[in-house]
């Protein structure tokens, strides 16, 4: 894959994550964040194209969605948490042999990391574990919904993608 093709691919993946994050937003008053399905596209990006693509798409796409949606106070944290989420998903998938079970484990570990990461972020931002704990159910709901959308979408798309892990 040429440098130009890689740049275009990353741009498309960033856009998918950003749009997926912004398309369905349910505001969470307690943490001043929102529930979304952008993690579904982080899962797809990471499993189809590897940990680096997942990290770039997850971190930049999600942070961009925060900036465009009026949640700039989360953008830097999102860049880190969602970027690491994407990397974890792709890395576990590669290390466990790119099997169906490896994809499921990687996806679940990634979204669990996201929930834990945002718990730490909320604890820091609001100086309160109690406030952060109130957001856990929302983040866990987002994680489960994104897994239930993202993994089946990956399974469907993986049958036709020719450039898997060539980036």
Description:
By secondary structure, this protein is mostly helical. 78% of the residues lie in helices and 4% in strands. It has a single domain (3-25, 33-157), classed as Arp2/3 complex 21 kDa subunit ARPC3. The chain has helices spanning 3-23, 38-49, 51-68, 72-95, 100-126, 129-157, and strands spanning 26-28, 33-35. The longest helix is centred in the C-terminal third of the chain and has 29 residues, at 129-157. The mean pLDDT is 93.
Which features would summarize this protein structure in a list?
2 strands; globular; mainly alpha; two-stranded antiparallel sheet; 167 residues; Arp2/3 complex 21 kDa subunit ARPC3
In brief, what are we looking at here?
The protein has 167 residues and is mainly alpha-helical. The protein has helices spanning 3-23, 38-49, 51-68, 72-95, 100-126, 129-157, and strands spanning 26-28, 33-35. The protein is globular.
In round numbers, the mean pLDDT is 93
CATH top level label: Mainly Alpha
| Helix percent band | over 70%
Query: Which H/E pattern describes the elements?
Result: HEEHHHHH
Q: Order of strands side by side in the largest beta sheet?
A: 1-2
How many separate domains make up the residues?
1
Judging from the principal axes of the Cα atoms, what is the shape? globular
Name of the CATH architecture: Orthogonal Bundle
- Care to count the β-strands? 2
The largest pleated sheet is described as: 2 strands, antiparallel
Low-confidence stretches: none
Q: Assess the beta-strand content as a share of residues.
A: under 5%
The CATH topology name reads: Arp2/3 complex 21 kDa subunit ARPC3
Structural class by secondary-structure content: mainly alpha
- Give the C-alpha Rg: 15 Å
Q: Given the structure, what is the number of helices?
A: 6
> Alpha-carbon distance between the termini?
7 Å
- What is the subunit arrangement here? single chain
Keywords: Membrane, Transmembrane, Transmembrane helix
Pfam families: ECF-ribofla_trS
Protein name: Membrane protein
Transmembrane segments: 7-28, 40-65, 71-94, 101-126, 132-157
């Amino acid at each position: 894959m040429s440098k130009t093709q890689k740049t275009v691919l990353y741009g498309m993946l960033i856009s998918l994550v950003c749009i997926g994050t912004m398309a369905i937003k349910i505001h969470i008053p307690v943490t001043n964040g929102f529930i979304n399905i952008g993690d579904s596209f982080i899962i797809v990006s990471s499993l189809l194209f590897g940990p680096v693509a997942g990290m770039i798409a997850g971190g930049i796409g999600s942070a961009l969605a925060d900036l465009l949606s009026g949640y700039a106070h989360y953008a830097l944290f999102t860049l880190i948490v969602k970027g690491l989420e994407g990397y974890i998903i792709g890395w576990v998938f590669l290390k466990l042999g790119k099997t169906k079970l490896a994809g499921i484990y990687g996806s679940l570990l990634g979204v669990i990391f996201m929930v834990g990461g945002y718990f730490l972020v909320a604890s820091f931002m609001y100086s309160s574990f109690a406030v952060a704990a109130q957001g856990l159910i929302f983040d866990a709901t987002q994680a489960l919904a994104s897994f239930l959308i993202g993994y089946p979408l990956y399974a469907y798309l993986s049958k036709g993608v020719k450039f898997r892990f060539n980036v």
